[in-house]
Amino acid sequence: MSFGDNDMVIVFAMSLQRIALISIAVIGWLFCAFYTAETANSYGADYTFWLLLGILTGPLSVPLAVLYFRLSGERYRRRRYSVDGKSDLPRMVRCLRCGEMVPESFERCQFCGAPIKKRTKLI
Ligand SMILES: [Zn+2]
Predict the structure, then answer these.
(1) Mutual orientation of helices 47-57 and 5-42 as an angle, nearest 10°?
(2) pLDDT in the model for residue 88
(3) Are 68 and 74 in contact (CB under 8 A)?
C-alpha cells in the first residue's frame, strides 16, 4: 500500500474534523465563562473577576458560580424571604470613575456622581 492521494484526503478530512471539534470546545468553554460572569454579575459580584475565573475553569465554573451565589448570595436570601419569590435586588454595574457598585437603573453614580454607562451585552 502506498501513501497516495486518497490517504492525503483522509488525513485532511481528519484534521478538519479535529479543528471543528476544537472550535466547538473553545466556543463552549467561552460560553460557560460568559454565563458564569453574567450569573455573578446578576448577584452583584465582579463581572471581570468571574469572567477570568470562567475562562480558567471553563464548564466547571458554571456549577461553581451557581452554587456559590445560591448558597451565599444576598439576592438568594432576599428571594427566599420575599413575598412573590422574586429578588428585589437590582442588577449592579461598576462605576467607571470610582469603582463602586451601583444599580444598573441609576442615571448617575450615587458615590461620585459620574454618569452610569450601561454595559453592552456580549452575548
Ligand atoms: Zn462613582
Answers:
(1) 150
(2) 63
(3) no
